[in-house]
Design goal:
Layout: H1 3-17, E1 39-40, E2 48-49, E3 62-66, H2 69-73, E4 79-81, E5 86-91, E6 94-106, E7 110-116, E8 120-131, E9 136-147, E10 152-162
Antiparallel strand pairs: 1-10, 2-5, 3-4, 3-10, 4-5, 5-6, 6-7, 7-8, 8-9, 9-10
């Protein structure tokens, strides 16, 4: 195994474990392409909204997902996660906290996460994991949010995880 692959594998393992307690959040300085992601809404009742105020629970290493690269560049997020078990989405105007219940890493190419709140089930599938710098990984994928009434929304995202 070459040194770069070992380093990449080690970084992914760190992201998986969420062991970033000593990290401090730094802005990603790499220029991000202006690709627009498609989103599909299966229900008009649920809406995911962008937000800029990060909850205090998200400190240090984290994941930040946006609708597209332009929103990401302007720090408008639809999802944030503390690299452990706590995440947030803004649903119908309210910031909702989720607790992770399941994590699956499929051959370092696809990561599937499930999380719950009192009213919602969240499923995330990360399909493009690309190391963008020493401490961050660029990610694209899909968010599926369902409520207890069976209504759901499916949305593509663009984001990053790291310190």
């Amino acid at each position: 195994m070459n040194q770069t692959y070992k380093l990449f594998k080690y970084c992914i393992l760190i992201l998986i474990i969420g062991n970033f307690a000593s990290c401090t959040h730094q802005s990603v300085k790499k220029e991000i392409p202006k690709a627009k992601m498609e989103s599909t809404i299966t229900s008009q009742t649920l809406t995911l909204e962008s937000f800029t105020d990060i909850p205090p629970e998200i400190d240090g290493g984290a994941c930040y997902f946006s609708n597209d690269s332009a929103e990401f560049e302007h720090k408008k997020y639809i999802y944030v996660n503390d690299l452990a078990k706590t995440s947030f989405l803004k649903i119908n105007g309210k910031l909702i906290r989720f607790q992770q219940t399941e994590y699956k890493d499929i051959k370092h190419k696809i990561v599937k996460i499930k999380a719950v709140s009192k009213e919602y089930l969240l499923e995330i599938e990360m399909t493009d994991l690309d190391k963008s710098s020493y401490e961050t990984t660029r990610i694209t994928g899909t968010i599926i949010l369902s409520d207890k009434n069976g209504q759901s929304i499916k949305k593509s995202f663009y984001g990053s995880c790291g310190c």
